[in-house]
Design a protein that fits this description.
The protein is α/β, with parallel strands linked by helices. It contains ten helices and 13 strands. It has a domain at 6-192 and 226-253 and 293-310: 3-Layer(aba) Sandwich (Rossmann fold). The strands form four sheets. It has a seven-stranded parallel sheet, with helices on both faces. The protein has a two-stranded parallel ribbon with strand order 7-10. It has a two-stranded parallel ribbon with strand order 8-13. The structure holds NADP nicotinamide-adenine-dinucleotide phosphate and guanosine-5'-diphosphate-alpha-D-mannose (GDD). Keywords: Lyase, NADP.
Length: 336
């Protein structure tokens, strides 16, 4: 499908940003992304999409910016004039948010307000997507849907609750097309290396290759509803094509423990996970989210969205991907 739409993505260098950029380019969008200045390039997830902007066929454009810098968001939005804004940028690691609660609030929480306010200040007519999270449900028991009360259990969760309500407030106060996608955990071979699924898939491929002896983990009893990031960015796009702005849960509706994910991953290469996994309390959180299982009936009924990849297949495809790229990887500092 061809379109002349222009989208701006914050967090384009992250897991979801890279898949969303791919999807929008396929749909014919001109895509603009905000990239943080860093002493080394941080664009490895989108390098395959990049075309020199001097070439006429270039449709992906990157701009320096940061969600903690409100005036930059104003100049950028004014210059780009996007039809759709996807706010995916965040300090997104729950465990890290206990170490950096203030920065997490400034970027993950207030960052969204800066962006919404920049849109309002310049009078930009656009549709806005906020990357809300199942982490907002925290201690409220599953199944969780759009009407489930929030009970965040981390500075990250609390920051996301604030951003969620600011998004709703801009919708109600100023009539903005502002939508929250409440996404449950979603993973892929591009997942950050310190999230549990990727940590496991990398460890499995390292163990098979003789590069690692043991995998140190925290709470194996946590229950999560893990889907595939590629499926989930499709839901983000569908939300901004809907007739009305609203809030949508996106999930598979299935439940597995971290222990199950270990089993699927190790089994795939013929190994018994219990021989390789050891406990380290460093990976426990001061307060844990025990169980997240989403009810995505509204996304199915209103948007026509359903997940294609479920957790066991996801675990296998991540192990396969990490096994193929093992020689290209630099290893992680152990304490992360
Ligand atoms: P991710 O891989 O951690 O990517 C986060 C992105 O945000 C990166 O591009 C990062 O840039 C950027 N970023 C961080 N702080 C920033 C700042 N101050 N200014 C500008 N950019 C900043 O996260 P993800 O898994 O793709 O998730 C995307 C969004 O969905 C996040 O908001 C996350 O909280 C939310 N979410 C994720 C899940 C999930 O399971 N993946 C579920 C629900 C909600 P660098 O590359 O420079 O670090
Ligand atoms: N990261 C990590 N590392 N988690 C571990 C480990 C470990 O060694 N051992 C056990 N876990 C448990 C965590 O305690 C948690 O219960 C579960 O594995 C999942 O942890 P993460 O993969 O770090 O994800 P998360 O659920 O805390 O947060 C992710 O999902 C949210 C949506 O619910 C992130 O992507 C958030 O940004 C997202 O909003």
């Amino acid at each position: 499908m061809q379109t002349s739409k222009r989208a701006l993505i914050t967090g384009i260098t992250g897991q979801d940003g890279s898949y969303l950029a791919e999807l929008l380019l396929e749909k014919g969008y001109e895509v603009h992304g905000i990239v943080r200045r860093s002493s080394q390039f941080n664009t490895s997830r989108i390098d395959h999409l990049y075309v020199d902007p001097h070439e006429a066929r270039a449709r992906l454009f990157l701009h320096y910016g940061d969600l903690t810098d409100g005036s930059r968001l104003v100049t950028l939005l004014e210059k780009v004039q996007p039809n759709e804004v996807y706010n995916l940028a965040a300090q997104s690691h729950v465990r890290v948010s206990f170490d950096e609660p203030e920065f997490t609030g400034l970027s993950t929480g207030v960052g969204s307000t800066r962006l919404l306010e920049a849109i309002r200040m310049i009078g930009l007519e656009c549709r806005y997507y906020q990357a809300s999270s199942s982490e907002m449900f925290g201690a409220t028991p599953p199944p969780q849907n759009e009407d489930t009360p929030f009970w965040p259990r981390s500075p990250y969760g609390a920051a996301k609750v604030y951003a969620y309500w600011m998004t709703r407030n801009y919708r109600e106060a100023y009539g903005m097309f502002a939508t929250n996608g409440i996404l449950f955990n979603h993973e892929s071979p591009r997942r950050g290396e310190t999230f549990v699924t990727r940590k496991i898939s990398m460890a499995v491929s390292n163990i098979v290759a003789g590069k690692q002896d043991f995998l140190y983990m925290g709470n194996l009893d946590a229950v999560r509803d893990w889907g595939y990031a590629k499926d989930y960015v499709e839901a983000m796009w569908l939300m901004l094509q809907a007739e009305e702005p609203s809030d949508f849960v996106v999930a598979t509706g299935t439940a597995y423990t971290v222990r199950d994910f270990l089993q699927f991953s190790f089994e795939h290469v013929g190994l018994d996970w219990e021989k390789y996994v050891r406990f380290d309390e460093r990976y426990l959180r001061p307060s844990e989210v025990d169980s997240l299982i989403g009810d995505a009936s509204k996304a199915r009924d209103v948007l026509g969205w359903t997940p294609k990849v479920l957790t066991p297949e996801l675990a296998r495809l991540m192990v396969d991907a990490d096994s193929k790229t093992i020689d290209l990887r630099t290893e992680l500092p152990a304490q992360l």
